[in-house]
Each structure stands twice: as structure tokens, then as C-alpha cells.
């Protein structure tokens, strides 16, 4: 692929004014950058070949109002973006028509667009600019023009940590839905993950002033009929546009043009359990919130062995990789399972349970999974 790489130009990195009291605002000036190399995540550095026309990228504006333009090397480039400190998010990046692209140029064009679309961070040091994100790292050299120092202002640290919500956007305000999302702030970086209705979603973005801007929000593709599907579509549309942050007491409200999300901090992690599940045991659900569970076609069971959990949700067999961190069960991937339709006696919703990162404890032969709202008790058999 190294013969397919080329050089790209980037101009006008714009920074929002520093939030520190008395700090002078950082001004943006046009700077042209040329790609030195590209490094896909987990792979070796790739140096651009000399046979291709060098793509260009221009970012103009500041804060949440960046405009993307330039060239992929064989087609025009457009898009929008947002920058705050070292956080950079590019949205709606498009490469125009590829009619004039040779096979080699087309391959470079696709790699170039993929890297830009996953960018979450920029670093400027002297004449070197580095963009990093989910696809990997792009390193540039300044081609000319004045240099703007990388701003270091960071958002309010009191947002740092994980917040959760169970509401989906309604036409004029929040409405109770099946969504269960976790939004995590770490300085200028923001991530979202969880259940959007019947699909799981993940996304990353940045805190820009008093707005949260997600660059990409991906979801699984399970069909969601009826009101659940409609609510999920509203939620996804909300996440893909800038959201204004508002404080309401202990809650955090993310407000968009089509609705809002009300977030509360997740409970502090419980102390690690002194006991872990017996890998030789099968745990059967006996009580949910102190009451016998509703009838299911099969017993609801869980087993924990060699980093994988498995069992039955009462209808289908399920399984997935997991870890226990600070006393909480965390899936390291989604749950997979069989596809039986048990309409009369449907299974329990394990996906929602584990999306909430339940605390885990073992007391004798009883395994307890506890969320903010529910307590699940399983007995070893």
C-alpha cells in the first residue's frame, strides 16, 4: 500500500479561545501541511509514494465552526469540523466524484478519507503536525505560512467521568425510552456507548466550548420496528449533531435541536469482590429485585469460564467475552446468540443488563449482579 500513499496539505488549524481567566484568545492563521507518513493502528509506518498527486486539506474557522476543503489528490474534499485544545473532530468529510481517480489514486483517496473521518486529536510541535484517531496516525510537515501554537486550554474538569442516561429525545423534550447510554468525559475527549433502543452504539468526539460534538456514531444494524425504532432514529439523529451542555442541579443535560438527553453520574465503582464466579458452576436466576423471575421457556442461566460468559436468556443461548474491572462486569465485545423466536415466553434482556456494567459479588453459592435499578440473584447448580 506504500506506493499508493501520497502527500496531503492541511491549512488553518483554528482554536477556540482559552477558557482560563484572563487568557488571550488564540488566533488562527492559514498553515499548509504536507503528509510525511501514515501509520495504521497496530501497523508499521507507511511513507507516501512519489507517483501520485498530493492531496490537500484546509480547515478554516474556529471552535465548532470549522470548514473542511481541499483535495484527495484526484477529487475535491468537503466537510465540517470542530476543535478545542488538542481535540479535533471532522464531520461529513466527503471526497466528491472519483471519476478521474486511477486505481492507485482511488486507494489512496479512500485511506485518506478514512483516517480523516476518525481523527480525534491534533498535536503541533514546531513544523510537525500529527493527527491521530481510530484508523491510526497521520504526520505532516509544514509547507509554508505562519505557524499557530497548539492551544492547551482544557474544558471544565468537573465533567470528567462517566454519566448515564435512560431517556431518548422526544419532539419537545425527553421521553422515557429503552435507550441506556454511557457518556464519558476525559478532558476534551468525549465517548458514547450503550443501547440506543434495540441496537448498540459507539462514538467518539470532543468537548468544544459548551458543546459536545461527536465525529462518528456507529451502531449495529438490527431491525427495530414500531415506536422503538422511531425513538432510536431520533436518538441517533440527536447524537450526530452538536449538543449544548446545561447543568440542572446534579444532572447534566445535552440539548440539541430535536430533543435532549438528561445524564446522571454513574455510581462509584464497588470494591472488587473477594470472590469470583466458580468456572465449573452454572448459575441459575432465582430472584429479580427480591421476587421470583417471570416464567421463561428455559431456565435463565449464566456461566463464567476462561474470560467468556455464556448461558441462556430463557429463550436463546448467549455468549461473549468479559472482564471484571473494579468489581464490575464489562463486556469486551457484544453478546452473540441463537435466533429463536419465543413470543409467548421471551427471554430476559442480558444485553441491557451488561451494558450497565453491573457490579458482581459472590456469596457462597449465590452470584449477585446489581445495577442502579435492578438486583439479579443466581444460584450455583
TrEMBL record:
InterPro entries: DUF306_Meta_HslJ, HslJ-like_sf, Hsp_HslJ-like. Keywords: Signal. Residues 1-23 form the signal peptide. Residues 147-162 have a biased composition (Polar residues). It comes from the Bacteria. The keyword Signal applies. Residues 143-162 are annotated as: Disordered. It holds the Pfam family META. Residues 30-140, 160-263, 281-377 form the DUF306 domain. The keyword Signal applies. This is META domain-containing protein. Gene3D superfamilies: 2.40.128.270.
